[in-house]
Amino acid sequence: DIGDIVRGKDMYKRTEKDEVKEDKVVYAKYIIASHPKQKRIMQMKMDLEIHKIKEAWWKVNRDQVWKAITCEAPSKVDYIIKNTDGSRGITSQGYSGRNETDVTTNLDYVLNKR
Predict the structure, then answer these.
(1) The pLDDT of residue 105
(2) What Pfam families would the database entry show (predicted)?
(3) N or C, which terminus of the chain has less Cβ within 10 Å?
(4) Distance of CA 37 to the CA centre of its chain
(5) Which of 89, 95, 97 minimizes the C-alpha distance to 77?
(6) Which H or E run contains 91?
(7) CB-based contact 78:60 (threshold 8 Å)
(8) End-to-end alpha carbon distance in the chain
């Protein structure tokens, strides 16, 4: 899901940033072990703020990300959608959704290769 990638939730693609994140987790565990109550509260607040920032950015920029992804799509391309009943379908509503005015979350889906 594109939204998950923007929010940093895509765990299938490893990058150097993942290593940095892992280092931060180790450091946070050290802080929590050293000063359990104070540092744990501080870490939880920082994590919450980062999550809020990512969510807010995605909410504001989601339509722009969609436009950027579909700007070069040919006019006769099918794409996979998730139907309201949870099943997958294929649609060809022009330019792979480029002209969609109300981008629903089922258009965010990106297949993850394992």
Answers:
(1) 57
(2) Duffy_binding
(3) C
(4) 31
(5) 95
(6) strand 88-91
(7) no
(8) 14
Q: Which amino acid is at 8?
A: G
Closest alpha carbon to 58 in 12, 111, 8: 8
Tokens encoding 71 = 């700007």
Q: Give how far Cα 35 sits from Cα of 4, 17, 22, 40, 49, Å.
A: 32, 27, 20, 8, 21
User: What residue ranges do the domains of the chain occupy?
Assistant: 2-6+14-107
Residues in the chain: 114
3-class secondary-structure state, position 20: helix
Per-residue pLDDT at 35 exceeds 60: yes
pTM, two decimal places: 0.35
Q: State the chain's maximal CA–CA distance in angstroms.
A: 60
